Amino acid sequence: MPPSARWLGAAGLLPFIATALLSWMLPPELRGFALFALAAYGMVILSFLGAVHWGLALRAPPEEARYAAPRLGLGVVPALVAWAALLLPPVPGLALLAGGILATASVESLAARHGLVPTDYMRLRWALSLGAALCLLAGAAAALNG
Hints:
The chain has helices at 3-11, 14-25, 28-58, 68-87, 90-113, 119-144. It has 146 residues and is mainly α.
């Protein structure tokens, strides 16, 4: 895993952290903007996570051909979940994004056991996924808080 993947991955958490904090700190009349920004970024990231698997499927060696359809499916499902989440009100939408990010990481962990996803990617992936999910859930809590 190149060092740039680690620091760019960590930098990718900054919008999650900033918008989650803003969802708690802004006055109620501006909170909706922070919650939408958090959900929109969560949607982008969840879609991005799925796209990783299209790349893996398209560059897979011939001996991994039997995994092509599940990999391509894992590339599409997160984007569909993300889109649905953005159409929901903030609390269920943010919770669905958090769940989608963690569910994608869980499926990737299963794939890693078959050697289909690099182990060092999974270590980074779980750290970033937990951070993103916590921020999304913090935003959902802020929305519940009024």
